[in-house]
Description:
The complex is a heterodimer of chains A (269) and B (524).
Chain A: H1 11-14, H2 17-33, H3 37-54, H4 58-63, H5 66-82, E1 88-93, E2 98-102, H6 103-129, H7 132-141, H8 146-175, H9 185-215, H10 235-257
Antiparallel strand pairs in A: 1-2
Helix pairs in contact in A: 2-6, 2-10, 3-6, 5-6, 7-8, 8-9
Chain B: E1 28-36, E2 45-52, E3 57-62, H1 68-75, H2 78-81, E4 86-93, E5 96-97, H3 103-106, E6 110-113, H4 117-120, H5 126-136, H6 141-154, H7 170-182, E7 188-192, H8 200-216, E8 220-224, E9 237-242, E10 245-250, H9 252-266, E11 286-297, E12 300-311, E13 315-320, H10 326-333, E14 341-346, E15 349-350, H11 356-362, E16 363-366, H12 379-389, H13 394-407, H14 423-433, E17 441-445, H15 453-468, E18 472-476, H16 480-486, E19 489-494, E20 497-502, H17 504-513
Parallel strand pairs in B: 3-8, 3-9, 6-7, 7-8, 13-18, 13-19, 16-17, 17-18
Antiparallel strand pairs in B: 1-2, 1-4, 4-5, 9-10, 11-12, 11-14, 14-15, 19-20
Helix pairs in contact in B: 5-6, 5-7, 6-7, 7-8, 12-13, 12-14
Amino acid sequence: MIVKFQETNSFLHRLNPVAKFSVVVAYSIIVFLLASLRLELLCIASIVAMERITGGRQVLAFLLSRFVLVLVAVIFIMQAIMTRSGTVLISIPLYFTSLDVTEAGLLNGAVLAMRFLSVVLAGALFVATTNPVDFVYSLMLVGVPYRFGFMVILAMRFATVFEQEAKTLVNAQKMRGLNVDEAGVRGLLRCIRCTVIPLIVCALSRVDNLVVSMEGRAFGSQKSRTFVAKAHYGLLDKTLILASSVMALLVLLDLAFGWYPLPQLLPYR
Amino acid sequence: MRLPQRTDREVDLPRPLPGGHSNVSPAIAVRDLTFCFPDRDLPALRNVSLEIAPGEFVLITGSSGSGKSVLALAMAGYIPHVVEGTLTGEVRVRGAATTQTPLCELAVTISLCQQDPEAQMCTLTVEDEVRFGPENLALPVAEVLRREETALAAIDCLHLRGRETVRLSGGEKQRVAIAAMLAMNPGVLILDEPTSNLDPDAASEVLLAIQKLIRDRKVTLVIIEHRLSPLLPMADRLIVMEEGQIRLSGKPDEISRQYLALLQDKTDLPAQFSRPRMETSEQSPVVLEVRDLRFKRGDVEVLHSISLAVRQGELVGIIGANGSGKTTFLECLAGLNQPDSGDIEVRGANTRRVKVSTIARDIGFVFQNPNHQIFEKTVGEEVIFSARNFGLDPGVTAAAAHRVLTEFDLIAYEQFPPLRLSHGEKRRLNLCSVLPHGPGIIMLDEPFIGQDPLNAARIMAAALRLKNEGFTVLIVSHDIDMVFRYSTRIMLFEAGSILVDDVPHEARRRIRQIGKTSFLPEEP
């Protein structure tokens, strides 16, 4: 399940990409610094609800995808069995030792798994509602060097081309009698070698063409460049940027000075 | 692809004198230019001298590797600024020496538009692509927008605004690439094989755009092209390059005659296929049978109810616009695409029931991009790659590989890295490498793209030789003349259906009848 930008005219889509990005960054900082299962569950529910309001269904589908569920389960299980402190709930005898699952371990696993989920879902919502090109242009307009910005644009431009090229290469291998489904490390390595080398050759030839095309249009000749596209910052965008920055800063300062006891888990004390 | 001739009344530029000598200072002056790439022994350009007058339209042709594109890179200043090598002599663009002038300054006087428009687009929308150059020059927004408007209007592409570059057709992409260069407001525009990747309709679009450019703008135009006939009536001068030197230069009609004579001396391809359709009779076994084939990509049906039978020894030429389903059809035949309905039988085996690797024993498929099929370190290993995968006897395979390399004039490169071969040689290697395991059917997808007439003729001669040996050959190509001249059967695809499927003379009649005249060969 890959989350992609879906064009509609919801309030989330209309927000400035930089404003949305600053909210996601602040939100991620706060979620990482607070260890509250209730808060995390509330965040996840809010993200899913927000996406439903915008008319999208990608985030929920992403949440329920096998990839995400397995990853969440792995994080939960690993934390549950690795955290040794607290009351032992279950003890699983092993050959040399025993595996204790503690109350703190379960809580730690649940908090970390939900933390991961809430940050990943926020990112998914951002991707689903933000035109990537608008986002990159907005970043360049707020001062990110345009050379870096165009790296991202070029990556987006050629991602589909290389995906198509990789498919063609696999087809070409099949037509030359290479069993691409051959089991074992040897088969896998052979398949990778036959895909990677031609893909690199094609990529390098495209790089040559791009250099000629970009240098021939004076790319990089000036310190700054003109952008016809203008980023629109409405009152809501400005408020979001300010509010998210202030909140993230307050939580960081609180963590440093201990003004107010924030919810924390045992292992982090 | 037939365009009206250029008339002097249509342009208001100083007309160059025949042979390229003008009474005004040259737009480009190349003096005694020699260039050698670092890893090559022989120079790519040797003592080239050339003057191009302002407003002149110069057509450059010549065999692959003759130095045409290298000359273009040198004229546009990429040599020596981007491409490394040893350079002697000089190039001056509007009086400025390219060696002394930074590339960003040259970029506003001379622009080079490359062969593959897909590979040179660096943004995601048409507007961004055309604005890219002026924005890099840090021009005021109003000026950027004015240039965008003018450049798109110059080649009739204003209607493409708002489109994503990835969704443009081949012809539209090429036109947008030209517009992006025009937005730099250069005095000189170089187009390197602008129509080579395009179907006849798309090529006509680009040629009409070029014609408009010649008529409307004060631009000096240099076009590198193998397909000369549509451009010859408009050109002021034709230059033929060979082995890094200018072999012929002068009036287009006169030079083209001399060039054709030179080519005919070098080609052993018969002017017309000697015994058309004689070897293929109703008694020849059917090797490919397609019954009511339908194929979807996502929710969109791209092949609609195709039924046909191909007999052993046929040479089938498949033509049609880009995106009409030709390559998808070949992929279905090879088992790479499974039909959504209908059946395909390759030598009696249903493609639904056998693995692709089994079909590959019977079908040798040469893909469009030669680099997609090169996997090994040496030419010799590349040729036996398939046979080895099929577990054939190494002794027999080695003998077969030696035979095909000799036949295709590649035996000298047996221990050579295949990626260092020229484009034409790679194409021949692709064909060689599907032969040693003895498939009865050969499918060639656009084998003539980027090939000079001599190399194209070599590939066609190889296809004819295979056909005469009893192979069934299917060729997808935009080279309508070549397809009509040598195929025993023509298929015209349109929007996923076969509009015409007949012997060449009948196909010609029917194509004319339905008004698809761009898919007819040029009259002699």
